[in-house]
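hey can u check if this looks right to u? its 364 residues, i copy pasted from the old doc so theres a chance i mangled smth
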Amino acid sequence: MKRVLINAYEIGLVFKRGVYQRMLKAGSYWLFGEEVKVYNINTAFTAPVELNILLQDAALVDALHVIDVKETEIVLLYENGLLKQVLTTGRYTFWKNLIEYKFVRADLSKVNITEKIDRATLNHKLVAPFVRSTVVENYEKAVLLIDGKYEITLSHGTYYWWKNDIPILVSKVDMRQRQLEINGQEILTKDKAALRINAWAQYRTEDIEKALLLNKDHEKQLYVIFQLALREYIAALGFDELMEKKDALSAFVLDAVGSHAAALGITVTSFGIRDIILPGDVKDIMNQVLVAEKKAQANIIMRREETASTRSLLNTAKLMEDNPMLFKLKEMEYVEKIAEKINNISVSGNGVLIDQLRQLFISK
């Protein structure tokens, strides 16, 4: 016989020859041929024997929280409102005491999180390994495929799903206006002139379901559509005709790609040609033609100016012929101009001064 003391916040389990007998709460007890195992009720309980044997005691059942967690479940354990542990597959027991326990069971066999679990908990380091998430930015949209099947279109925000064997695919698209570079396009004109075209286009994805679910690589397809439209326009024109009609190229391409882009869920807002690069020999010929044209224009301008100058001299001569006084004024004007450049003039003889000056400056 021996005396056993069970302190406060302790519970004792009495065994006799390895067989469970009863549960002892706080107090002093005398045992005859029995042994007792004492447990702190503020910690989790680990059964010393098969738990089902112990649970045949109704008193022990009332003193324990027994949590069974299936293979497809997790249980979030809260102590006094704080997340302390995530329980995975197995059986767990906790003593009922002054600690307020809360158990939140989550079914991991499904994808969507339907349990009342806040965002902070889903981001907690204990829960995060069981959760997958994605962020859709404010300028994006996304389509959600669960197990290969279209589920929903996602707008901006953060989304969470349980992590399991069911595959999830989130495909995002930037909904802002974007620019497409169409560079280095080698195209033959109708008269076999090889040109290199550099162009650009601006576009916006309007229908994400069309773009991602009904089309594969919709941006690559848009690039090819622009290529074909450029070739269609340029190949139908000779080089000289193309140079004359190049301003109409953008409008033609926009009209040609509009319906095809709409089938991709895309709206094309603008298109333009950045460069038309000529082959080296064609460029030399064009430069020669340009030089010849400019020379011809210069000759025409020079002849026009010479004709105008001659006509002006003729008109002046007619006026001077009809008006002797005007002739004398013109002579004096010339004398003034010459005098500005001559320091001294010597005049001799008995002639009139004006006649002598005229003899100096006007040949007979």
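The mean pLDDT is 86.
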